[in-house]
Write a structure and sequence with these properties.
By secondary structure, this protein is mainly alpha-helical. It is built from five helices and no strands.
Length: 139
C-alpha cells in the first residue's frame, strides 16, 4: 500500500469529480503545479507521478521538498510574529490588511503541508522500490 498525501486526502473530502482538463479551483497553486508536472489532469493520491523517478532523483526531491516545507513554516511563523508586533503597537493595522495577512499565512501553511507530503512520498518510494515499480507500471 502506498502513502496517501495527508493534505490531498483532507482536500478530497466533499469535492465532486471534475472535468479532465481542470484542476480543483480550491486547491492551492503549488498543488496544481505539482499535479501538472506529474502529468495528472486532476489531483492524484500520493504523487504517483514521481514513481517514474530513479532513487537518486527521489532522494534529491525528498531533500529539496523537506527544505521548502521548513522554509514555508519559517515564513508563517515570521508573519505571525509580525502580526503580533503590529497589533501590540499604538496604531494597529487596518482589518482588511490583517485579513490579507491571515489568508497569506493560511496559504503558506498549506504550501508547507504540500511540500512535506511530497517529501514524505518521495522518501517512501525511494525506500520501497517494489511498491514504486508496481505503481509506475500502471501509469
Amino acid at each position: 500500500m502506498h502513502p496517501y498525501s495527508r493534505s490531498e486526502t483532507a482536500h478530497q473530502e466533499g469535492v465532486d469529480a471534475m472535468p479532465e482538463e481542470s484542476i480543483a479551483s480550491n486547491e492551492n497553486s503549488l498543488s496544481q503545479l505539482l499535479h501538472l508536472l506529474q502529468g495528472a489532469h486532476e489531483p492524484v493520491l500520493a504523487d504517483v507521478g514521481i514513481t517514474r523517478f530513479p532513487p537518486a532523483r527521489l532522494e534529491a526531491l525528498h531533500g529539496n521538498a523537506s527544505r521548502e516545507a521548513e522554509t514555508c513554516l519559517d515564513r508563517a511563523q515570521l508573519m505571525l510574529h509580525l502580526m503580533e508586533g503590529a497589533l501590540e503597537g499604538e496604531h494597529p493595522p487596518e482589518p482588511a490588511l490583517l485579513q490579507r495577512l491571515a489568508q497569506q499565512i493560511g496559504r503558506t501553511l498549506a504550501d508547507h503541508r504540500r511540500w512535506r507530503d511530497l517529501a514524505d512520498n518521495a522518501a517512501y518510494y525511494r525506500d520501497h522500490p517494489g511498491v514504486k515499480a508496481r505503481i509506475s507500471a500502471q501509469l
